[in-house]
Write a structure and sequence with these properties.
The complex is a heterodimer. By secondary structure, chain A is mainly alpha-helical. Helix content of chain A is about 75%, strand content about 0%. Helix content of chain B is about 75%, strand content about 0%. Classes of the chains: A mainly alpha, B mainly alpha.
């Protein structure tokens, strides 16, 4: 089923936002590295005196970007599991639940964990519907294996973020980590190599063209 | 345990490694220079295929020698508790650390260069330039045959000296350091998966980078397809390798500040950039998008180089500064 033009525009906008968010995370990492380099060489004993504050600042800057990424994934990957308006409302509700948990406990980490847990639940539903072949979720890419792979690897990313945020000191850390890793790797494999993994092989015709025209 | 005898046996295997490896280590920069010349002079490029194959065979022979050395190290590097006299275990030094790092990266690129099929003739010159730099670097800075495993040997010889000192406290301190390194660094399963996965990814990204340069020069989508195929092959081990570093870091660096350390920052940056690149190419057919895709691919590879170098320049966990 071909995706209508106005939805493709929406997909494109979400992809641009994803790339931009990844870019800002990369920029933060680069600035962080430069700062560590500078601080270690200029401030004596910075590892002990300055590192905890540095980690705090980096976490505070990274958290909204990770939340935004997860929201974009929520809007992008399960496209039309709900319609666009419903999807935005669901995302806003998840964010609201996270903020409420933060306000209730006074702990930002708990708020983030609640948000990620809800996102993971939605993503599990998306993957299940995709595997079942329900026509609801539509994706940028075609083919059920590719779609399932895409859903799985995004679920893996959310699960890994949950492990980092909420389970670092838990006995469930390792099992949850392995599940997240499995989803990510299996999802990546399926998304990238669906044509080789599929039982029913399809021949994809590649059209080579010059970029001069575009 | 007889520390003096162990030291003598170590000296013997280091001498043997140097005796057989020195000619190869001298030959490596020469071979790199020949590869570079063949890559840069268009009339000589037809010899690149056999030259790359020959180089790969030489590197493989050298790696077999290094594997023998590491095997002998495993046999000799016994860690004994000064308290009980019981053997805690042997140190299995992986074949991709310290002096061998650049060598492994060069070997990976060489093996991949031999396997290139799509756009082979056009890719080989660029890949050979990268390969020659890596080989020269491995010989000049790595010195895997003449100065093997300096950090490990320094620590292990320190441990042997402490065991020989007759002072229980000194021996116990050295033992705890060596045993910690054995359990949480050298012998841990992560050490045998995390670095090789990343080196494999580095190899594929080097070829993807060359294909992207061709794409910019020739402005044709077929080179982008080649660049993408190599990038996706590397993205999987990059993701897996980075993920596997996480539980290892939690266990091995317990109590240490490692999250947001320089190397971790750079690795996150590397991963997000390649992720951005692979997302951006979904819209390659849009007007002007190929420029963004090319820019992201080039930037990602430059960050890869910085990530590798960060180990040597940026202090913190993961660092040798």
């Amino acid at each position: 089923m071909k995706t209508p033009a106005h939805l493709r525009q929406w997909d494109y906008a979400l992809t641009v936002v994803t790339v931009a968010l990844l870019g800002t995370l990369g920029l933060q990492s680069f600035i962080g590295t430069a700062y560590v380099w500078w601080a270690e060489s200029v401030i004596p004993g910075w590892q002990i005196s300055g590192y905890p504050d540095f980690m705090l600042v980096m976490n505070v800057i990274a958290a909204p970007q990770v939340i935004a990424l997860v929201i974009v994934m929520g809007l992008c990957v399960p496209k039309r599991l709900f319609d666009r308006t419903a999807l935005v409302i669901v995302s806003a509700a998840m964010l609201g639940a996270g903020v409420a948990a933060w306000a209730w406990t006074g702990d930002a980490q708990t708020g983030l964990a609640v948000f990620l847990a809800l996102s993971a639940l939605i993503q599990v539903a998306v993957v299940a519907l995709t595997v079942a072949g329900v026509r609801g979720p539509s994706y940028l890419t075609e083919g059920r294996l590719v779609k399932t792979g895409s859903g799985l690897l995004h679920l893996g990313f959310i699960a890994f973020a949950y492990v980092v945020v909420a389970l670092q000191d838990s006995v469930f850390m390792l099992p949850a980590f392995w599940i997240a890793t499995f989803f990510t790797i299996a999802g990546t494999l399926m998304a990238f190599y669906a044509d080789k993994l599929a039982f029913k092989k399809t021949v994809r015709v590649e059209v080579d063209r010059s970029f001069e025209a575009v | 345990m007889n520390p003096a005898a162990t030291r003598t046996e170590f000296a013997a295997i280091i001498d043997t490694l140097a005796a057989f490896g020195t000619p190869l280590q001298v030959l490596m920069p020469v071979g790199a220079a020949i590869l570079l010349a063949l890559a840069l002079v268009p009339a000589w490029q037809r010899y690149l295929g056999p030259a790359v194959t020959g180089t790969t065979i030489l590197l493989l022979l050298g790696y077999a020698l290094l594997a023998w050395f590491h095997w002998r190290v495993w046999e000799l590097a016994v860690v004994v508790s000064p308290e009980t006299g019981a053997i805690s275990g042997r140190v299995a030094v992986p074949l991709w650390i310290e002096s061998v790092k650049l060598y492994v990266w060069a070997l990976t690129v060489a093996l991949m260069a031999v396997c290139i099929k799509r756009h082979r003739a056009e890719l080989l010159p660029g890949v050979s330039v990268i390969l020659s730099i890596l080989i020269a670097g491995a010989a000049v800075w790595g010195k895997p045959f003449t100065e093997p495993l300096p950090r490990f040997l320094n620590q292990y010889f320190g441990y042997l000296a402490a065991m020989d000192s007759g002072n229980f406290m000194i021996a116990m301190n050295a033992y705890q350091g060596m045993e910690g390194a054995r359990q949480f660094y050298y012998n841990t399963i992560y050490m045998w998966i995390h670095p090789p996965a990343l080196f494999f990814a580095y190899g594929t990204f080097a070829i993807s980078f060359v294909a992207t340069v061709l794409m910019i020069m020739r402005r044709h989508s077929s080179y982008e397809t080649t660049a993408y195929r190599w990038a996706r092959l590397g993205y999987l081990p990059l993701t897996a390798g980075m993920l596997l570093g996480f539980p290892w870091a939690i266990i091995a660096w317990q109590g240490e500040s490692w999250w947001w350390s320089g190397k971790v920052n750079m690795s996150i940056m590397l991963w997000v950039l390649y992720t951005a690149h692979l997302h951006a190419r979904l819209y390659l057919r849009r007007q002007g998008m190929w420029r963004w895709v090319a820019a992201l691919s080039i930037l990602s590879f430059l960050v890869l180089l910085l990530t590798y170098l960060a180990t040597y320049f940026v202090p913190g966990a993961h660092s040798v500064v």
